[in-house]
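Query structure, 140 tokens:
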């Protein structure tokens, strides 16, 4: 629910990628087999985290999530608002809100590598883990 509320905020209408466009981006950037995940895993994650919207933004109270992968400001990026931000991806959170996904991909892979999977993302844990996700990549 929070993700969808975030998408409804003014000024958050970025580029909403098509399902197959997102599949192509993930395949091109080596997500198939990355830390034991599939492109279908990532597709489900992105659907539930951001609805494929490059400018998705969600306020979690003390921190915020940014971009298509909903990368959190407490640990991974710096938004200048989150107290004690670790900024482990060494990036401004605002860079995660543009249509260039290069930095988003680099940071998402760092998160997955460190976690050895997709467990940091609640969208994936609650909607995707352990399910048949073939429909997310079918026909692409």
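Result returned for the query:
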């Amino acid at each position: 629910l929070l993700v969808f509320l975030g998408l409804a905020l003014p000024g958050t209408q970025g580029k909403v990628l098509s399902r197959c466009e997102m599949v192509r981006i993930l395949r091109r950037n080596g997500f198939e087999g990355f830390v034991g995940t599939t492109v279908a895993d990532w597709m489900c994650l992105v659907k539930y985290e951001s609805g494929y919207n490059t400018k998705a933004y969600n306020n979690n109270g003390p921190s915020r999530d940014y971009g298509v992968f909903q990368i959190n400001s407490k640990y991974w990026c710096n938004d200048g608002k989150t107290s004690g931000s670790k900024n482990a991806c060494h990036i401004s959170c605002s860079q995660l809100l543009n249509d260039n996904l290069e930095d988003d991909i680099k940071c998402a892979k760092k998160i997955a590598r460190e976690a050895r999977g997709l467990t940091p993302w609640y969208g994936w844990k609650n909607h995707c883990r352990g399910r048949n996700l073939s429909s997310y990549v079918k026909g692409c």
